[in-house]
Amino acid sequence: MKKVKVGIVGMGVPSRGGGKNFIDIFREEGRAEVIAVCDIIEGRAKQAAKEKNIPYWFKDYEKMLKLKELDLVVVRTDDKNHAPISLASLDSGRDVLVEKPMAIKMEELEAMVKKVEQTKRILMVNYILRYNPIYQLVKRHADKRMFGKIFYIQREYLHNLDKESILTGTWRAKKDEFHTPICGGGCHAIDTFRWILEDEAEEVFAYGTKMAYSKEDYSFPDSIVALIKFKKGAIGKIHASFGCILKYCADLQVMGTEGSFVGNKFYYSTQEEEALSINLDYPGHPFQPLVKDLLDSVIARKSPPIDVYDGANASSIAFAIMESLNTKKPVKPKVFLRKI
């Protein structure tokens, strides 16, 4: 079987799951071959190509797209470049795996959805937390209606990005990147809600504070709390912060008429001693199963499990939350209806 030929844009920082890590993951999968790497820092692309024995390296992704044998483009750049590179790749007849958030503007979301519908190419969005084994277990319980009717879902996305040296002084702090705690990080929680509930948002409302960083260091509110009313009746709550003093936290709560999931325990009665504790490790970001699903879709020419509509609707909700924060009013997000 012909291997899928892959080009990766954005080598990034290896400790943050940079593009270089994906070279090994595609190789381990066995059905793909990374033939090109690209980075705006030319030396980083050249070094990755040399270290990983990749035949082509580029500074300009448009030059990479001229490779005739290229099948799939992986976009792992700063946020504002996700949409332009994805659109160019789709337009050139390539499939795409793009990092979250899929885009930073509504017109980009609209253009990406339209382009996928026109070209019939595959675009998968890297919402890696769907592959968290704890979240997958909760999803299976929800699918089996073990919670009954879910009426409340909550998740945190809490980081101190400055302690990780990846906020102030980096691209994430730039105003034109729109890397807010909700759009840049909390979109993970939004996608988790949509996935577990199998529902879309009807209305959002949000409050935000700015106490952790100065305006000069970071342009946006650094802590945001948002409520989401879903069409089937459930309420979701997100707290997303880039300035809290604690380790990374992404706790999930689900409450329904027949059961709950709180503090990594399943409750099907009010007795604490009857709660079912789970003992599952979360192995960082498990990219291997995501790449497997991506290649399954590319080879079989079928819709990926996290498609362009998932990416667009998650970011649409995030944009609505930021609008609510600015207007101090409830906002109804745009919903992208699946056509293909």
Ordered list of secondary-structure elements with their pairings:
Blueprint (H helix, E strand, L loop, with lengths): L3 E6 L9 H11 L2 E7 L3 H11 L3 E3 L2 H4 L7 E4 L6 H10 L3 E5 L6 H14 L3 E4 L6 H11 L6 E9 L22 H17 L3 E9 L13 E8 L4 E7 L10 E5 L3 E3 L2 E3 L8 E2 L9 H14 L7 H20 L13
Parallel strand pairs: 1-2, 1-4, 2-3, 4-5, 5-6, 7-10
Antiparallel strand pairs: 7-11, 8-9, 9-10, 11-12, 12-13, 13-14
Q: Please tell me the overall pLDDT.
A: 94
Q: Using the coordinates above, name the CATH class of the largest domain.
A: Alpha Beta
Shape descriptor reads globular
Query: Quick one: how many beta strands?
Result: 14
Tally the structural domains.
2
| Helix content range | 25-40%
Low-confidence stretches: none
Gap from first CA to last CA: 27 Å
Order of helices and strands: EHEHEHEHEHEHEHEEEEEEEHH
Describe the sheet with the most strands: 8 strands, mixed
Which structural class do the helices and strands define? alpha/beta
Explain what this protein looks like in three dimensions:
The strands form 2 sheets. The protein has an 8-stranded mixed beta sheet with strand order 8-9-10-7-11-12-13-14, covered by helices on one side. With 340 residues, it is of the alpha/beta class. The model has no long low-confidence stretch (mean pLDDT 94). The protein has 2 domains: 4-127 and 287-306, 3-Layer(aba) Sandwich (Rossmann fold), CATH 3.40.50.720; 130-279 and 315-327, 2-Layer Sandwich (Dihydrodipicolinate Reductase, domain 2), CATH 3.30.360.10. Strand 13 (265-267) and strand 14 (276-277) form a beta hairpin. The radius of gyration is 20 Å and the shape is globular. It is built from 9 helices and 14 strands. 33% of the residues lie in helices and 22% in strands. Helix 1 (19-29) crosses helix 8 (287-300), helix 4 packs parallel to helix 5 and helix 7 (181-197) packs across helix 9 (308-327). The longest helix is centred in the last third of the chain and has 20 residues, at 308-327.
